[in-house]
Amino acid sequence: MTRYIVIGAGAVGGTLGGKLTQHGIDAVLIARGEHGQALVESGLRLRTPDENLTLPVAAATGPTGVRLRRDDVIVIATKTHQAADALTQWADQPVYDGETVAGTAGELLPVLTMLNGVASELLALRYFRLVYGVCIWLPAVHLEPGEVIARSAPVPGLFHIGRYPASASADTALLEQIKADWTKAGFAIQLPADVMEWKYNKLLSNIVNAIQALVGKNGDFASIVKQARAEASGVLDAAGIAYASREMEAELRAIGPKVRPVPGEPDELGGSSWQSLARGTGNIETDYLNGEIALIARQHGLAAPINTKIASLARIAAATGQRPGDISADELATILGI
Questions:
Q1: Are 159 and 152 in contact (CB under 8 A)?
Q2: Helix 246-253 × helix 195-205 angle, to 10°
Q3: Confidence (pLDDT) at 268
Q4: pLDDT tens-digit profile of 296-306?
């Protein structure tokens, strides 16, 4: 029986692991700090538009709390800037076949890179032989230890999953097993030929994350997002990088997440970068979102001044303890010169 080791059981990983557990699918949730301790001691409180559950999840705070086996699937669901630590921590862990060590996780187990951005798949190949990218469409929030708020129902999330690189031979049976298990847990699953086309599409969608995190509700930032996204898509086009079209995205959104109010919570809750500032984590994943556009631009002799500056502002905001809304949309537009 396939077991999913979900490393980074925050908003996305917590929703996945909680839903798998709720539907009788074997999963272990891995989280650090107060959140991890709360999962171990009290289980996961999973709040959705329709449910308020406390699930007795299997949980651990690190690899010493898990005995890996041959039928495990590793799911990395941290932020991208935390992925390297997670990969190095788990790649060399022993995998058991009964009482015998059969090899290491990096040699034997598939790893699913369930993160925003497009950098984690290549990073994972340094440590794991079998890498599968996951493009995530899952509106969820993690602000309090032991609790995750999944904001979509009845489908909590939509995932595109595929082997990385696309030219590598994929284990069709594994992909079909993941699809069957995760569909049973309520998710919508697609198995595209090239998952990276969807991850680059999502990269463009995630351009808004840092802007939303900086401005919060302090003004209308739609025009900033439009210009930053236009710059980003122009960079990808000039670099010859393929990405799924907005029309393809719209078609799939019809079967994907539908955000609805969660009782006791405001109608609007921010994305992953907003949550980083709201929780005061001291770090933020923007270097792998807007900063990824800056990197691609520089690699191809181009410029991306809007996204470059947004990445810088987000880094400074995280490092200095700024909160969403500490800067207004008008102030941000002036700083960006747009």
A1: no
A2: 90
A3: 66
A4: 999 999 999 99
Residue-range domains of the chain with CATH: 3-195 (3.40.50.720), 200-336 (1.10.1040.10)
Given this model, what pLDDT does residue 143 score? 86
Q: Please, which pLDDT band fits residue 101 given cuts at 50, 70 and 90?
A: very high
Neighbours of 225 (CB within 10 A): 17
What separation in angstroms does the CA of 13 have from each of 28, 48, 135, 253, 324? 10, 15, 13, 21, 23
Residue 48 CB contacts under 8 Å (≥ 6 apart), including other chains: 149, 150, 151, 152, 153, 156, 262
Using CA atoms, how far residue 51 sits from 19, 258, 302, in Å, is 11, 15, 48
Residue 127's SS3 state is coil
Can you give the pLDDT at residue 136?
95
Across the range 25-45, mean pLDDT stands at 97
Strand 140-141 to 130-137 pairing = unpaired
Instruction: Tell me how far apart the alpha carbons of residues 84 and 130 are, in angstroms, rounded to a whole number.
Output: 16
Rounded CA separation 98/318 (Å): 45
Which candidate, 24, 151, 146, 28, places its Cα nearest to that of 93? 28
Q: Which two tokens stand for residue 261?
A: 């109010």
Q: Does residue 154 have a cis bond before it (omega within 30 degrees)?
A: yes
Q: Model pTM greater than 0.90?
A: yes
Confidence of residue 126 (pLDDT cuts 50, 70, 90): very high
Q: How many residues does the structure list for the chain?
A: 338
